[in-house]
Amino acid sequence: MLYDLLALLFRPVAWWGRLRVEGLEEVPATGPLLVVPNHDSQWDPIVVGLAIKPRRRLRFLARASLWRIPGLGSLLGALGQIPIERGAGDVGALERAVDALASGEAICIFPEGGLSWGERLRARSGVGRLAQWCPDAQVVLCTVEGATDYMRFPRRPRLRVAFLRPVAVEPRPGEEASALSTRLLDEIRDRVEPSPAGRRALVGGPPRVRKRRANPRASRS
């Protein structure tokens, strides 16, 4: 199977990162499952997939732009991953995730919607919607630490992935999906602080967008 083959090929990533997995017993071996991790590194999907592999195979809700990369899009499609347009209220992607959960599959979604870049971000509503629309799905939180250190080669990272049940995932009376997402993300971030990603993190934080200087000639016209 393609998923198993790729997991085998990526095993050196876990070895190099000295991956330590905790709380795997909290992951149900069967039935609909919603995995909710923090997102500080581009390596997070691979690391989470390797950590949970002894129990489940994951389908990720991943940014749709990845499907426009030649070769990668076909691979992601063959693996059953689900493209989602971030920030666009992509109901179609969420409906595909609901169908997968109804079939007893495991879905992974990052509540932050993208890399944290070392800052606390607001939670996206997608996680809360899936939890509300699929009350039979088990929700398992996931904390990932150390994945940003892959960029510090040749120093080896020390990865730690932990799975845990949320304190309370049941929606409160009148609670909106965004509020439920926020509660789940806060519980994750209370355990692991955001960590900057990329080489720029070594010299002081996320990349900054340079402002374009005004054209002096244009101002004279």
Structural overview:
- With 221 residues, the chain is of the alpha/beta class.
- It has one domain (2-192).
- It has helices at 2-9, 11-16, 44-52, 72-78, 91-102, 126-133, 177-189, 216-220, and strands spanning 20-22, 33-37, 58-63, 82-84, 106-108, 138-145, 160-164.
- The chain has a seven-stranded mixed beta sheet, with helices on both faces.
- Helix 6 (126-133) packs across helix 7 (177-189).
- The N and C termini lie far apart (65 Å).
Give the low-confidence spans: 203-221
Tell me the domain tally: 1
- The computed structural class is alpha/beta
Strand content: 5-15%
Count the beta strands.
7
For the sheet with most strands, the description reads:
7 strands, mixed
Mean pLDDT: 89
Fraction of residues in H or I helices: 25-40%
- End-to-end Cα distance: 65 Å
User: Tell me, what's the shape?
Assistant: globular
**Going across the major beta sheet, what is the strand order?**
1-7-6-2-5-3-4
> Counting H and I runs of at least 4 residues, what is the number of helices?
8
